[in-house]
Each structure stands twice: as structure tokens, then as C-alpha cells.
Amino acid sequence: MAEQKKMVEAITSMEEDFAKWYTDIVKKAELMDYSSVRGCMIIEPYGWAIWENIRDILDHEFKELGHENVAMPLFIPESLLQKEKDHVEGFAPEVAWVTHGGEEELPERLCVRPTSETLFCDHYKNIIHSWRDLPKLYNQWCSVVRWEKTTRPFLRSVEFYWQEGHTMHATAQEAMEETERMLNVYADFCEKQLAIPVVKGRKTKKEQFAGAEATYTIEALMHDGKALQSGTSHYFGDGFARAFEITYTDKENKPQYPHQTSWGMSTRIIGGIIMTHGDDNGLVLPPAVAPIQVMIIPIAQHKPGVLEKAEELRARLKKICRVRMDDSEQSPGWKFSQYEMKGVPLRLEIGPKDIEKNQCVLVRRDNREKTFVSLDELEAKIPELLEAVRQGMYDKALARREQMTYTAVSLEEMKKTADEKPGFIKAMWCGDQACEEKLKEEAGVSSRCMPFEQEHLSDTCVCCGRPAKTMVYWGKAY
Amino acid sequence: MAEQKKMVEAITSMEEDFAKWYTDIVKKAELMDYSSVRGCMIIEPYGWAIWENIRDILDHEFKELGHENVAMPLFIPESLLQKEKDHVEGFAPEVAWVTHGGEEELPERLCVRPTSETLFCDHYKNIIHSWRDLPKLYNQWCSVVRWEKTTRPFLRSVEFYWQEGHTMHATAQEAMEETERMLNVYADFCEKQLAIPVVKGRKTKKEQFAGAEATYTIEALMHDGKALQSGTSHYFGDGFARAFEITYTDKENKPQYPHQTSWGMSTRIIGGIIMTHGDDNGLVLPPAVAPIQVMIIPIAQHKPGVLEKAEELRARLKKICRVRMDDSEQSPGWKFSQYEMKGVPLRLEIGPKDIEKNQCVLVRRDNREKTFVSLDELEAKIPELLEAVRQGMYDKALARREQMTYTAVSLEEMKKTADEKPGFIKAMWCGDQACEEKLKEEAGVSSRCMPFEQEHLSDTCVCCGRPAKTMVYWGKAY
């Protein structure tokens, strides 16, 4: 019984040690475990169920927009990876190499895919011939491997899970529209489903994807003031098509190169959920992706009728939400803490007195607000409350981001702000990579994005004082 | 326009060249394409949609039985693979080895998982402590890699997709029940959803999984008389638990080893669908997993009202089945052939005369039976017809299997039957591995399984004449 009565252990507070708070949550909420393979995670059932919910929502959106899922090989022959010069330069230093199959050395090394542009292009070369074959709108759900030196659960791991969309279009215009469309899918998903406000914008040349002509990003601000790149969408022009000799015959019977995009969102976003919404009691999950949306906890469950009523409610609510009931021997207090740790959006308490009054108590995870609800009104009230939780989470995250967004007009101001105030710093930029490098070196910030919503903060570059071209969001980043 | 008017090319007939017929179908029905990586497939949208349907049905069944999905690493350190002696012997010769990460040689080689028993055990060691932690019912959907020398699309590939269930139980009894339960899930899935009749039984020691105490299998018979192992379920006893030092404290506070199972079904089953149901016009898909269940083909689509009516039906039927409408410029004849090639279970034809009569024509893929159906009755009639297709496919496959199942009571008879009549051969066996090897050598057959439904065919072993212990299904196999 000693085992059963143990308390839910407290986690390190955010204030005390943010990094430890983060790893405490991923472990105590049972999202993942460390494996014997350096930098590779074991994603446990609760963590994987979150990813499955993310996958199902996004997959539905992709398919509604005409995308189709495929499965490409896990391996890329070295010669294939080398076909596009910028791409291989970007990825070769961080791939895992397979050199032997069974006892035999392979004639050519294979890398474990770090991303699959080259594989898709190799296939597109075989299947794209005429304008009628376009567009090709493919996507795959898989894991990829990048040999990172320093790793952190979900945020940066050697193996991680993602979806990668790879599309081919007849014209540059169409491909650019696709790039923008998919960035918007990600932004809407983050804001409307995950309650994470994001800044949409374009990456500077220095920060763009290896081989891309343009990289677009959504950037979210974490609790500790660091930025998280949460989804990216790339426009490749016809660069890969030329390297892979992919051509199609247009309506006038002339050969043309198609134009390409790719876009991805990964398990990293689970780190983003934790660090946007979590608090010192644990995880706070957006209802859309919470494996359990409502946890029913019977009070004084040994009393006659309580467990029966709790079970009756579970069976009823199963039709409208993801619900569980915990009838274990643990105390209600233990259960409250446990499911707060796990970030369950709503707790439903039901005891003998509630049953007498034909009511129950619903407690929101995000602000602990209690509501007494008639048992007759549950089907109407629960969706309402889940939506209120989502809205509450979004508003809180947005208010924090606004509070933690600063501006700087001089290098001194940039250094001081970066040093003293964690968050985004908006500042003007001349467009010169030398200034980006200097800001990184002297203020420790990188350019997060050139936001679509531009503001005019000053006439001159925050770094060099020459005429400014663009407003940029700067910050420290994961 | 020349491109548009091309005919659907005929495929090689089954009679003429079965292997070529098979590869013609996988290519012409656009299930897969070959990649630049030896033995690794590209699964194209239509093929992957079949796998997604298989996954969704099985995943639902697994979850209903209390299983949870997780994600284990892609890599296994060499030392971990070596912990269980039989297991490493079975798999080490056919794994891909990662030796370098980026520019650096790894301190220990990693193999790309060929199966994940060792990874699950390594994790279970950390999370199983008390009887309260049992059972653990985990599953994962992923790809695995086995360095096969000879490969064929879906049937044997270097990389293939599967689910692997790995469970831990307090007692041998419970683990054995799980092994049997999951075999039954596979058998029911094959028979009821895929319309593939299977023989359930146990593998001989020679054929069992590396490290298992018992392997159970479902064996299906393909069109050409070869057997296809279509799903397996393994009982491990506490062998891995001992090797990995996984113990739990029982209710009497004593340390115990838990008992283990694993079970898997792979993309190989898509090969099984092709070779069980396909014909010389192409693929024939079981409705449960067909990406398109009903294809609407407008007749004389340039005539007023036809396309509008076809689209109206599509919108209506979308609510009850997976439906598409083809309004391309191709001729109806071309479309008929095309969707027969793709194995669409039902074709719905609608033309001006049908519209006048408020009816349409429904044509079954499995037997080309035509039915005129009133447009008012479609919602009732289509599910009925889909079920009739499934039943028709199953009956046909079962009749063929029965026709192609023989018995033998002497070595001579076995050799003659194996030589002349493709199919299963039922024969008695003494239990000695030497006889299995001799039958393989002299008759070219392997033991497929010792079926649960035993028959007494003779008193003596078909091979050596000593007293028989078991009836065995023998055959040539994929």
C-alpha cells in the first residue's frame, strides 16, 4: 500500500531552473524516456497520443487541400545526396552513415535521411513528364535523423518525427502560393488548435534551409523568452529540378522545369506546447490534442452509488470527448495533482453530495476555475468549457508574448535588452549578413524572421547605422 | 491529345508468367515504384492509402484491447542486440550497420532495427517494477530494415512497414493468452476485412522466430499455389526478461520475471491481397481497405445534366463510402479498364438514359455483375453490394484454397504432389527436424504450420515412416 499512497512529487519550479522544470515535466507527465541510443528518445504512450492527435488534425487539413501521403525510403545513397550542392553542404556534416549490410561493406555509403528532398526528386524525375502530371502534392509522416551533438527531449534529438510535404508545380507562381498556403496551415493550426500565438515571416538568407530560395517560418515565444521555430515552408524554385533533370512538357509542347516546395512540422512542437502553456504544476494541454480531455474523479468513491454514477457519466461523455475515469485506490488529492501534472484540460469531480443535487464540479486546468454544472447540461457545457480553456490559454500566451516583445534602435540598446530582458526584440536591419553575425556575436541574438507584418521603427540598421531595409524579429532561440 | 487517348495497357496474364503478372499489377495500379536504394520501395499514394486503411482498422482493434502506441528508436546499439543469444544469431547477419555520425566514427556500431524486442526490453527494464505495472501492452507502427539479398515489391524488401506489438505479463498463462488473442485478431482481420482465408497454427521449431519459445502464424494460399505467411505472434516466456534482467515484485513481495509476447503484420499483406484476389484485368481490392470503394463514371458526359448528376451522386455518397468521380476527358471504356486495374470494388455508371429512368448501373469488380439501382435506393444498396463483393471474394478464395490443398502419406507421394500440383500439402510428421530438412531438399517444401485444426491422415511420418506426432501444412512459400 505504501506504493499507492505516495504523493505526486513536485517538480522544479520554472523560476528556479527552467531547463530542469522542462525535463521534470517531460518525465513526470510520462511523455518520453531516454533510450540507450545517444540522443534518441522513447516516446511513451501519453506523448505519442499527443503526436497522433497532431498528426490526425494536420493530415486531414493536408488531404482536404489535395495532398496525398506516400512513403519514401529511409536511406539516401551518397551520390544522390550530393546532387544539389547547397543541400549536401548543409546536411552532410550531420548525417548517420550506413556502411555495412550484414557482413558486407556496401559499394556506396547510404545516409539515414535527414530530410527527403533528394528522394522525392529522384522519384519525381520518373513520374513527371507532362503538364498533366502537375501539380504533385505529396507528403509523408516519418522519422528523420540528424547527428546533433547536444540534444534535448522533443526540442533537438538525433531522431525525430515529422511530416514532410514535397510538391512540384508547373509555375513559380503556383509553387510560391503553395509555400504560403502551407505556412498558413501551420500558423492556423498553432493558433487555433494548440493555442500558441506565432509570428509569420521569412527567414534571412543566413537562416534559410539548405538549397532553398526562400524559407518561411512561424516563430513562437516560450515562457523563458526564447524563440522556437515551430514550422517551416520552403520555396526551391527550379534548383533541384535542374540538378535532378526533372522536366515536363507544357501545353505548347515545350520542355520546362517544374517549381518545388517543401514544408514540415515535427515533434519539436510538443516541446513548444510544454514551454508555452506549462506551469509549476506540470503540463497544460490544448484540448484539441490532449489524449484525455476530461478526467472524471469520483469523490468518496466507497460510498454507495458514486462509482456507478461516475461510470455512467464516462459512458455518456465518451460520445462527445476523450474522457477517462480514475477509480483507483489513490486519494482524490493525489489524482488531482496527477492529472494536473498530465495537463488534462478539464477535471470532473462527482461525489455523494453532487449526486444528491444532480450536479458535478468541473475544474479548468488552465486557471483552476470551478463550475458547478447540472448533470443534465453536461453535453452542452463541456464543449463550451473546452473552448474556454483553449481561448484562455491563447490569450494568456499572447499577452505574455506582447509583454516580452521589445524594440531596439541602436546596437547598445540591442545588447542591453538582449542581456536584461528575455523575449523578442524588434529592430531594423540593412540586409547585410555581416550585421547578423555581429549581432549574434555581441548581443547573442539571431534573426528569427522578417515578419510579414512590417513596422517602421527607425530609418537605420540597428547594427551598422546604414539605411534599413526590413524590420526583423531577433532573439535567443532553441 | 495523343497522350490522353492512350489505352490502358494490358498486363501479362497470370498463366503466362505469374511473377511478371504480379509486378505488372504493382506498377500499373500505381502501388509502388522502385527507388535508387537497392531493395527499398517507394510506396505511391494509392498503395500507401491501402496501408493507411489497414493501419486504421488494426490500430482500432489493438486499442480496443487496451494496447497503447509508442515510438522506439530507429537504432539498436550492437551490445544491446547481442543480449539475447538466439535473437542476435537470427538477425545479425541481415542488419544494416551505422558506423559514422557526420565525420566521426561511432564508438559503438548501431544497427538499423530489424525488429525491436531488444529496444522494448531495454525500456521495460526501466518501467516495470511492481505487479501493478503489468501488463504492459505496447505497439508501434514503423519501418524496419533487413538486408535481404533478393527482394520483391511488398513481399520481401530491405525496408518494410509494419506494426510490432510487444507486451509483458505477470504470468506465462497471461502471455500465452495474449499470443493467441493477437493471432486471432490477425486471422479475423484477414478473413473478415481482407477476404483472405487463412490457416492458423504453430510454427515448427525450425521455422520459429529468433529467440521465441513458440511462434504462431496465419498462412494464406496465393493464386500460384505458394503460401504466404501473413501475420505472426510470438511467445517468449521469460527468456528476454532474464537476459535483460527485467523483474517485478509480485503481490507477495517476491521478485519475478515477467513473460513476454510480440506480434506483427506488415506491408507484405498488400502482396497477399494482390496474389489472393487479383486477376488478369488487375487488382481486386477488398472494400474494407480500398482507397476508393465506388468510382462514378459519367456516360456521354458532354450531354446536358450528366456531370451535374454525377457530381450530385458523389456528394451524396461521400457520406456512406469512399467515393470518387472521374470527369476527365478519357473515354468511359478507358475509365472502366483503369479502375478495374486499380481494383475499385464498385463502378457506378450514370448516363442520360439512366437519369431519365432515375437509375444507375452498379458493376462489381470481383465478378463484373451488373445491377440497375434506383437512385433513391443507393444509400441502402451500396453497403449491401460492398458486402456482397467481400463475401464473393472470400468464397472464391476459399474454394480455390480447398481445391489446391492435397494430402500425402509417403515421401514419394509428397514429391510427386509438390512437383505437379501447386498448393498446400497436408501430411503427418514425426517432429524430427531432420525430416523437415529432407522434405525441403527432396520435395522442395517447407513446413508452413502445425494447424490448430488437426486431422489424422496416417499413423506414420510422411518422410521417415516412424510414428507421427502432428499433421503439418507443407508448401512452397514466399
From TrEMBL, chains A, B:
<dbReference type="InterPro" id="IPR036621">
    <property type="entry name" value="Anticodon-bd_dom_sf"/>
</dbReference>
<dbReference type="GO" id="GO:0140096">
    <property type="term" value="F:catalytic activity, acting on a protein"/>
</dbReference>
<dbReference type="InterPro" id="IPR033721">
    <property type="entry name" value="ProRS_core_arch_euk"/>
</dbReference>
<keyword id="KW-0436">Ligase</keyword>
<keyword id="KW-0963">Cytoplasm</keyword>
<keyword id="KW-0067">ATP-binding</keyword>
<dbReference type="GO" id="GO:0017101">
    <property type="term" value="C:aminoacyl-tRNA synthetase multienzyme complex"/>
</dbReference>
<keyword id="KW-0648">Protein biosynthesis</keyword>
<dbReference type="GO" id="GO:0016740">
    <property type="term" value="F:transferase activity"/>
</dbReference>
<dbReference type="GO" id="GO:0005737">
    <property type="term" value="C:cytoplasm"/>
</dbReference>
<dbReference type="Pfam" id="PF09180">
    <property type="entry name" value="ProRS-C_1"/>
</dbReference>
<dbReference type="InterPro" id="IPR002316">
    <property type="entry name" value="Pro-tRNA-ligase_IIa"/>
</dbReference>
<dbReference type="InterPro" id="IPR004154">
    <property type="entry name" value="Anticodon-bd"/>
</dbReference>
<dbReference type="Pfam" id="PF03129">
    <property type="entry name" value="HGTP_anticodon"/>
</dbReference>
<dbReference type="GO" id="GO:0005524">
    <property type="term" value="F:ATP binding"/>
</dbReference>
<comment type="function">
    <text>Catalyzes the attachment of proline to tRNA(Pro) in a two-step reaction: proline is first activated by ATP to form Pro-AMP and then transferred to the acceptor end of tRNA(Pro).</text>
</comment>
<dbReference type="InterPro" id="IPR045864">
    <property type="entry name" value="aa-tRNA-synth_II/BPL/LPL"/>
</dbReference>
<dbReference type="InterPro" id="IPR017449">
    <property type="entry name" value="Pro-tRNA_synth_II"/>
</dbReference>
<dbReference type="InterPro" id="IPR002314">
    <property type="entry name" value="aa-tRNA-synt_IIb"/>
</dbReference>
<dbReference type="InterPro" id="IPR016061">
    <property type="entry name" value="Pro-tRNA_ligase_II_C"/>
</dbReference>
<comment type="similarity">
    <text>Belongs to the class-II aminoacyl-tRNA synthetase family. ProS type 3 subfamily.</text>
</comment>
<protein>
    <recommendedName>
        <fullName>Proline--tRNA ligase</fullName>
        <ecNumber>6.1.1.15</ecNumber>
    </recommendedName>
</protein>
<dbReference type="Pfam" id="PF00587">
    <property type="entry name" value="tRNA-synt_2b"/>
</dbReference>
<keyword id="KW-0030">Aminoacyl-tRNA synthetase</keyword>
<dbReference type="GO" id="GO:0006433">
    <property type="term" value="P:prolyl-tRNA aminoacylation"/>
</dbReference>
<dbReference type="GO" id="GO:0004827">
    <property type="term" value="F:proline-tRNA ligase activity"/>
</dbReference>
<dbReference type="InterPro" id="IPR004499">
    <property type="entry name" value="Pro-tRNA-ligase_IIa_arc-type"/>
</dbReference>
<feature type="domain" description="Aminoacyl-transfer RNA synthetases class-II family profile">
    <location>
        <begin position="45"/>
        <end position="286"/>
    </location>
</feature>
<keyword id="KW-0547">Nucleotide-binding</keyword>
<comment type="subunit">
    <text>Homodimer.</text>
</comment>
<dbReference type="InterPro" id="IPR006195">
    <property type="entry name" value="aa-tRNA-synth_II"/>
</dbReference>
